[in-house]
Every structure is written in C-alpha cells, then in structure tokens.
Amino acid sequence: MKNSSKKCINVCKISQEILERNSLTGQKLRQEVMRIVELSREREFCHCSKPSSNGGCTHCLRRLVVNLLRDKGFNASLCTSQWKRTKKYPGGRHEYIEILTIASERTKQLPLVVELEFRDQFEIAKACDEYGKLVALLPEFYIGKPKYLSTIVRILCEAAKKSLKEKKIHMGPWRKRSFMEMKWSYSLKQRSVDESLNNLISLGLHENRLHLSAAPIVVVT
Asked: Which superkingdom is the protein from (predicted)?
C-alpha cells in the first residue's frame, strides 16, 4: 500500500506540473476564453426542441461559445470527431472547440483545444481514492495545447487501469487511451502528437470542423 501511495503522489505531482505548465501557455488568451465560457453559461443558450433539465445542452453551449469567441476576433471552430464501431471499440462521436492562434515570434498556426466537459470525461463511479484525487486535480474545462492534453490523457488512462484492476473491475474499451484520444482526434492527429493516433484511420474515424463565421487569427504573446 505504501508503494501504491507513493506512486499516486508522484503521478499527482506530474499531473499538477503539466496542468500548471499548460496554464502558463497564452495566459491572457486563456483568461479571455474562460470569461467567454462563463458568460455563455449565464445566457439562455439552448435552442433544442427538448432541452435538458438543467436548462440547456452542451451542444448548444459549445455553439454559443464559438460564436462569442469569433465575435471577439478568435479563429474558433466547432470540431466533431466520429468513429465507427469495431471489434475493439464502440462507435461514437464527440464535439469540442478548437482555436487557432499564432505565437508572437512565429508564423505557424498553433491550435488550442477547448473542452467544456473535461473533468467529466475521466469520472469513474467505483474508482479507488487515489484515482479520485487525481481526477480532482483536473479543471472543469480544458483550454490548452494538444500536446499537454495528450499527456494528461495518457496519465489518467494509466491511472484508471490500475484503479479498476485494484477494484477487480473490468476496464471497458471506452476507458482506454486510444479510445479517449479519438474524442479530440482532429487536433491531436493533425498536430502529430502521439504515435498511437496513426491507427485511428483504420478504425473508421471521421472528423470535421464547423467554421461559423470568418475571423482573424489571434496572436498569442
């Protein structure tokens, strides 16, 4: 148990360092995006025929966030990843937001992933306490580079595997790293972040980006 606790502490420290490093990336930009997300939540954003009990759905919220971001001059897109069912994985789709930026010293476009349900993606009802502490470190929504996202996914999926093994619970394929990464496949695969993503095409993966209006590229300083 002592070794398990030490490993958990080390993993938590690594995760915290990654999150802190990510928070320093385009800090002013991140703060502005967070302000827009909070502003969106205060509005009546859902236009579905059957809105959820909490007054709106995340799909409508994402669309509103993208519109407000683009009104502020951000090059924001609503991305949808879709993948077919295979023998290894169930089929599915996932929406998230991507913002294209340019660092002040570069000309190459840099993507930022905005995931409004980030912590929820890793919640496990019967996980061990160590895993629960790790998930508690995660922000409610993620705003940052794909490479940091990929690292966080790897750490959390490895921790989930150990947690479920400790509880003697079968780990569903939707908990595995390769499946989790499919949710943000466009940003991760297009930026060649991880070798494991080379197999996504064979799984029948489709991605698209919905540009809601024209907007200039934001420069990150």
From this structure: Eukaryota
Could you read off the pLDDT of 68-97 as tens digits, one per residue? 999 988 899 999 998 889 888 888 999 999
Query: Which of 121, 178, 111 lies closest to 143, judged by CA?
Result: 111
Q: Answer for the pair 102, 220: CB distance below 8 angstroms, yes or no.
A: yes
Identify the helix (H) or strand (E) that includes residue 105: none
| DSSP letters for 20-34 | HHHHTTTHHHHHHHH
Based on the structure, what is the number of domains in the chain? 1
How many other β-carbons are positioned within 10 Å of the β-carbon of residue 28? 9
40, 41, 42, 48 alpha-carbon torsion, rounded to 10°: 90
Question: Which range marks the domain in which residue 38 is found?
Answer: 2-220
Query: Which DSSP symbol is given to 211?
Result: -
Token digits for 125? 């009802």
| Percent of the chain residues past pLDDT 70, beyond the cut | 68
3-state helix, strand, coil in the chain (%, to 5): 50, 20, 35
pLDDT along the chain (221 residues), means of 10: 49 57 63 86 75 66 91 90 88 92 69 92 88 89 88 92 89 90 81 40 46 36 27
Q: What's residue 120's pLDDT?
A: 93
